[in-house]
Amino acid sequence: MLFLDELREVIEDRRKNPRVGSYTSQLFASGEDEIYKKIGEEAIEVILAGKGQGNRRIVEEVSDLLYHLLVMLTLKGISLGEIEAELRRRHGG
């Protein structure tokens, strides 16, 4: 199992079983609009990092963006397998 799959499972667990002090649980409780807002913020931070903040910063910001995208996918009931299948389809495989 890839770590992204493991992380997706943890996110799903936080959605179904909220925990006090969990950032993920707080995101779900704050609602869909807050999740989208965070994705937008993180996407901008990825762009800024790419424009000259160095590779380490890019890795950090892409990690934040991927995490928030996983939260949205979990909210919408979309699996990583569906994303992978679409990427494979686009690649011709």
Automatic annotation (TrEMBL):
Its EC number is 3.6.1.31. One of its GO terms (cellular component) is cytoplasm. It comes from Bellilinea caldifistulae. The keyword Cytoplasm applies. Belongs to the PRA-PH family. Pathway: Amino-acid biosynthesis; L-histidine biosynthesis; L-histidine from 5-phospho-alpha-D-ribose 1-diphosphate: step 2/9. The keyword Transmembrane does not apply. It holds the Pfam family PRA-PH. Keywords: Amino-acid biosynthesis, ATP-binding, Cytoplasm, Histidine biosynthesis, Hydrolase, Nucleotide-binding. GO terms for biological process: L-histidine biosynthetic process. This is Phosphoribosyl-ATP pyrophosphatase. The gene is hisE.
